[in-house]
Specification:
The chain is an alpha/beta fold. It has a single domain, classed as Spore Coat Polysaccharide Biosynthesis Protein SpsA, Chain A. It is globular.
Length: 254
Amino acid sequence: MKIEHFVRIYLDCDFPHLPKDEEWVRNRIEFFERYTLKSLAAQTFQDFQIALLCGQQFKHITNRHRWPDGLHVSYNYGRDIFTKSKADYIAVTRIDSDDLYHREAMADVHQNLILTPYKRECLIFRHAQTWDMINKLLIPRHRTSPPFYTHIYPRAMYMDWKRFKVDHFIGHGRAGGRLPETKELPEGRVVVTKSDWNVGYFRRNAVPERMTEGTRRKYLKQLKTAIGDKKTINEILAGFGIENGWEAYPWKKR
């Protein structure tokens, strides 16, 4: 039985609520390659393909960019990628283009795949850490319906593009794991980044305010689960393929 695994990533899709211009797109590409892509390159399980979903508005940038081997760019939500598969099942793992997966994350997905004819299955990483790059903090988060999920589809479903598109590209409330049959995967496998270079799609993704040293110490004292020491932060981020994460900010533009 053949299974194909894809990691599906939004870059600059044509969403009306996405505040983007050419500078935003170029910065997002650089951020993606510095961090998200490095975390995927560091995976201990490498039998997956990367599907990068882009919009038409800035195709003159994304189409000319020199992407690494093994990364497939799509301008139609991945239809040209997914429907070419000859597999009995495909697994589609979602991540944003500014977030990170731990090096064992794809191995976790592979080891927990559920194959059910005529039915979509769902795996989910419900727990994440927020990396406040400006204030050098890692903050654990638990989300009821996070966007870090994997859908597994039998061929009959993923070849029906209209059905697949409606089922997969849907709000996190259903797609992200509120269904009772959703299987949860290990904790500590996701890092969500926050900085002034990767302002996200929604207001909740606002740039963190820079803390004074006093405010930072008070914050760490009040939030016992937050991590703020250099050694621990570097050790944790190394598991995501990031070397010396403590020095990641301020930016040194390429």
